[in-house]
Amino acid sequence: QRVLLLVASDVDALCACKILQALFQCDHVQYTLVPVSGWQELETAFLEHKDQFKYFVLINCGANVDLLEILQPEEDTFFFVCDSHRPINVVNIYNDTQIKLLVKQDDDLDVPAYDDIFRDEEEEEEESENESDGSEPSEKRRRYEEDVIERTMRRRQRREWEARRREILFDYEQYEYHGTSSAMVMFDLAWIMSKDLNDMLWWAIVGLTDQWIQDKITQMKYVTDIGILQRHVSRHNHRNEDEENSLSIDCMRIAFEYDLRLALYQHWSLYESLCNTSYTSASLKLWSVQGQKRLQEFLADMGLPLKQVKQKFHSMDMSLKENLREMIEESANKFGMKDLRIQTFSIHFGFKNRFSASDIVYATASLMENIEKEGPETTNFIKALDSLSRGNLDKLHQGLDLAKKQLCAIQQTVASCICTNLVISQGPFLYCSLMEGTPDVKLFSKPVSLCLLSKYLLKSFVCSTKNKRCKLLPLVMAAPMDVEQGTVIMVGIPPETESSDKKKFLQSAFSEEKAADSTNSRTLHNHFDMSIIELKTEDRSKFLDALISLLS
Predict the structure, then answer these.
(1) Residue 441 sits in the same domain as residue 292
(2) Percent helix, strand and coil across the chain, each rounded to 5?
(3) How many distinct structural domains can be found in the chain?
(4) How many Å is the maximal CA-CA distance in the chain?
(5) How many CB atoms lie within 10 A of CB 500?
(6) Within this chain, do residues 304 and 443 fall inside the same structural domain, yes or no?
(7) DSSP category for residue 470
(8) Does 504 lie in the same domain as 380?
(9) Any bridge partners for residue 491, and if so which?
């Protein structure tokens, strides 16, 4: 039996896909891989292949909508869904014949009880129509009156039940958030089957790191999952350091470490990494002259000469590099950057190849959303998938170069948005719109890049504003999507608060499309993330007005 793999376009999905491909190779399972970037592509792929395939595996797509209603499959078609999007649609949860959900057992789903949201059809049909004609008229009337009362009661109960059902479902579906990374779920599967390899473990680590970089999970969840993976890492990578057992230098090994929260610094210069990491740039307010001064003071405090800081990291003096992390952390604490140290993993293979998990995430994401056209749509997806394999270092390095360009573009855009006051408060949320003709605006027509930009912008804005209320508001960001078709892409980002809840407030407003319905805006919910929406440029202001009145 051949299997059709439908894989969403995000790094976590790619990692889960690599693990599953490796498992399929172990068992000689034949499969076809189809990348899907949104609901439309998913439906098209299903329609094209539904006659040849009976088994479909969906990675990071499909859990948060009613699959059977959208795809209308035959009775003998089966879906295996491994998706980190929450909340999972209730029909998918309670349909155990055709839809099999792959979730970790300790994932808290908070699903409403079956009886609260589903009623059997038969109950409703039992309107009693069994009146006998042979009895007295008075008898008939009495029975008829009882009947009416009973029916009225039943209708009232049904109305109450329906009202409660709406309330329960609203509470359940109100917020969008993310569960355990799909790559980790797949790795768990491999581990249970005793087929886990070090490569699979590394992909699980990259999948988790992707969730953390994209801000999809809380710090708490990240640290917990790192702990789970750390046990696997020590199981796979422990070495007896005596002469006989020392491994050849080409072998791959994974190590847990406390690293600096600086993007790509080992493949860049320390200076550029400090300038283009959202955490340091927002804390030091680098878009202002004052901020640039603070950066110089910060470097002086560490005692690092500018000449050293501005050259490639691997060309820096060894004497400086040895206790660089401690030096940076110590100075960072003085400058109010207390969270510069994070728990992560790094991978070594060969003599000089050392990458941290976040390097791989940035590189893979940039390859996937590369805007330079090189052949068909799927080229970028395949490239990104390949860059995750150890053998394709050239692709990985190409991804790292693209990622540096992307981070610089994000940082420049954030600076110009803040310096030209493009972030405006719309009442219940902040709003920022990128105009056509802004530098690098093409890059931000892609969902992952736009979300990263929005998160960086919100972080920086919260650091720069004096307004206390603005610090608690979510952000809605719009960017031109397709100039010829006149569409914009909009994304909603939850407030940048210290609380640990990473839930999206916009889910109910966006996905109910109340805002769209009330204004007849032509919207398209093509993305698997419900907080991303596409609409016609001329409908944008109508949509915003509706969103404001909905959320006020």
Answers:
(1) no
(2) 50, 15, 35
(3) 2
(4) 108
(5) 10
(6) no
(7) G
(8) no
(9) 477, 532
Say how far apart CA 529 and CA 313 lie, in whole Å: 37
In 3-state terms, what secondary structure has residue 315? Answer: helix
Q: Let me know whether 230 and 291 are in one domain.
A: yes
Q: Name the amino acid, one letter, at 459.
A: K
**Are 464 and 348 members of one domain?**
no
CA distance 436 to 417: 14
Residue 402's domain comprises 198-407
Which of 380, 407, 434 terminates a domain? The answer is 407
Cis peptide before 112 (omega within 30 of 0): no
Domain match, 427 and 391 both: no
Domain contains 332? yes
The model's pTM is 0.91
Which CATH number does the domain housing residue 542 bear? 3.10.310
Q: Of 407, 431, 457, which residue is a domain's last?
A: 407
User: Tens-digit pLDDT profile for the chain (552 aa)?
Assistant: 899 999 999 999 999 999 999 999 999 999 999 999 889 999 999 999 999 999 999 999 989 889 999 899 998 899 999 999 988 999 998 887 899 999 987 777 778 888 888 877 655 555 444 444 555 678 888 888 888 999 999 999 999 999 999 898 888 887 788 899 999 999 999 999 999 889 999 999 999 999 999 988 888 999 999 999 999 998 888 765 544 555 555 578 888 989 999 999 999 999 999 999 999 999 999 999 999 999 999 999 988 888 889 999 888 888 888 888 888 999 999 998 888 899 999 998 777 788 999 999 999 999 998 888 777 778 899 999 999 998 888 999 999 999 999 999 999 999 999 999 999 988 888 899 998 888 888 899 999 999 999 999 999 999 888 888 888 888 899 999 888 888 899 998 888 765 545 455 555 455 445 555 555 666 677 888 888 888 888 888 888 888 888 777
- The Cα–Cα gap between 187 and 192 comes to 9
Do 395 and 521 fall within a single domain? no
